[in-house]
Amino acid sequence: MSAINRRKFIRQVGLTTLLPLASGSLSGCFSGQNQKKRLGVALVGLGYYSSDLLAPALQLTENCYLAGIVTGSPEKVPVWQEKYGIPDENVYNYDNMHEMETNDAIDVVYVVLPNSLHREYVIKAANMGKHVWCEKPMALNEAECRDMIDACRQNNVKLSIGYRMQHEPNTQTIIGYGRDKTYGDIQRIVTEAGFYYNATDVWRLKKSMGGGAMFDMGVYSLNAARYVTGEEPIAVTARHETNRPDIYTEVDEFTYFDLEFPSGAIANCKTSFGEDLNLLDVTCTNGGYQLSPFQSYNGIKGSTSDGKILDIQIPNQQARQMDENSLAIMEDKPVLVPGEEGLKDVRIVEAIFKSAATGERVVIGS
Ligand code: NAD
Questions:
Q1: How far is the CA of 176 from the centre of ligand 1 (A)?
Q2: What is the count of structural domains for the chain?
Q3: Which of 9-18, 54-63, 190-199, 299-308 has the lowest mean pLDDT?
Q4: What is the model's pLDDT at position 163?
C-alpha cells in the first residue's frame, strides 16, 4: 500500500482501532506523543478576506498559525513568504495542491474562495485528510452542502463554517437571553446587514459564482434570526429590489425577507449591496435588546431594555474563531459552527430565492 493510500485507509476505517499500523504522524491524530501545540493552517485563496483579516489574525492566534498558502497568483507568493515566513514546501497552487496530502505541517485547510468554489475545495481538502474551515455562505445549494459534509465525515475530519459572530461574546450574551427567556418570549426580530458595494466586474455580481447581497450579507441576518431564537423558520416571504438595474442584472442588490418561526416569532430581515446596514433588534414579551453593529469585524455593542450595556471587546474575532476551532480539533470535540449549520442557512436561502422569484410565501420543510 502506498503512503497516501495507507493514510486514506486509516482515516476512513478510524484511527483508534488501527493506531499501531500508522507510521509517523497523521494530520488527523492529535493524541499522545503526536499531539501538536499549534495547528498549521493553509489559506486557500489570497483575496481580500485572507489578506486583510485572516492572515493578520493568524499572527495573534495561540492554537494555530499560518503554515501555508494556496494561490493561483504567482506574484503573491514572494510577498506572502516574506511577510509571514512561509517556507517553499508549504506554498501551493490550485494544480499541485493535492501534494499537500503528505505535508504534515498543514493540519487545516481554510477555503476562502468565491462561493461557487467552496464545494470543490472543501472536498479536495477533506480527501487529503485535512480538517476544513470554509467561509460563509457554505455553498450554493443544499446538495453541495451535503456533499461537503459527507466528504468530511468519510475522511474523519472536522468541518467548520466561518460564521465568526457565533464566537463573539456580545452575540453569545444575547443568544443566552433567547435561550433563557431573560426578557420573555421573542416576538419580533429586525435585522439588517449590508454595505454600499461599488465594484463592477467581480464574482460577487455573478449568479454562477454565488454572488449577490443575500449570499454575501443576508446570511448574517438569517443566521442571527436563527441563533437569537434557537429555532428553525417554517416559512419565508421574500422580495428583491435594485436601484442599479444596469449593474445588478444577475444577482440581488436588496433582498427583504420575513421569516416565521414555530413559536410565533417573526424576523423582518433586509440585506443590501446598496446601503450600509448593521442592526439586530429583538423585541420580547418583557422587553428586549439590540446589537448595532452586530456583524462588523470589531466594536460589536448594544443594550437591553432594562439599561444593560453590551460591550465586551475582544482583541480579534477571527483569531478567537480560529483558536476555538483549533482547540476543538486538538481535543476532538465538536466545533461551534459545523457544516450542518451552514447547510441550514443555505436551505433557507434557497427558499428565500424561490419566494422572491414567485412572489409566494414558501414553506420550509423539515
Ligand atoms: P476576493 O474576491 O477578495 O478573493 C477571492 C480569491 O479567490 C482571490 O484571491 C481570487 O484570485 C481567488 N480565486 C480563485 N479562483 C477564482 C475564480 N475562478 N474566480 C475569482 N476568484 C478566484 O473575495 P473575498 O472577499 O476574500 O471572499 C472570499 C470568501 O470569503 C467568500 O466566500 C466570502 O463570502 C468570504 N468572506 C467572509 C467574510 C467574513 O467576515 N466571514 C468576509 C469577507 C469575505
A1: 32
A2: 2
A3: 9-18
A4: 98
* CB-CB contact of 41 with 14 (8 Å): no
Return the closest-CA partner of residue 348 out of 255, 274, 248.
255
Substitution candidate for ligand 1 out of 71, 80, 135, 214 with most atoms within 8 A of CB: 135
Q: Are 99 and 92 in contact (CB under 8 A)?
A: yes
Indicate whether 176 and 247 sit together in one domain. Answer: yes
State pLDDT tens for residues 141-157.
Answer: 999 999 999 999 999 99
Same domain, yes or no, for 55 and 89? yes
Ligand 1: does its nearest atom lie under 6 Å from the Cβ of 135? yes
**According to the model, what pLDDT value does residue 365 have?**
85
**What's the whole-model pTM score?**
0.94
Helix (H, G, I), strand (E, B) or coil at 214: helix
Answer yes or no: do 117 and 246 share one domain. no
What is the 8-class DSSP label of residue 327?
H
Q: What is the pLDDT of residue 14?
A: 55
Same domain, 170 and 156: no
d(CA 57, CA 322): 9
Tell me how crowded residue 358 is: count the other CB atoms within 10 A of its CB.
10
Rounded CA gap, 104 and 8, in Å? 14
Is the alpha carbon torsion for 354, 358, 363, 366 positive or negative? negative
Q: Is 158 in the pocket of ligand 1 (CB under 6 A)?
A: no
Q: Is 164 in the pocket of ligand 1 (CB under 6 A)?
A: yes
Question: Using a 6 Å cutoff on CB, does residue 165 contact ligand 1?
Answer: no
Residues 169, 155 share a domain: no
Q: Indicate if ligand 1 lies below 6 Å from the C-beta of 167.
A: no
Closest alpha carbon to 235 in 202, 270, 265: 265
Ligand 1 mutation target, pool 113, 115, 136, 222, most atoms within 8 A of CB: 113
Are 79 and 137 contacting, i.e. CB atoms less than 8 angstroms apart? no
Amino acid 253 reads E
Range of the domain at 53: 3-163+321-338
What CATH number is attached to the domain comprising 85?
3.40.50.720
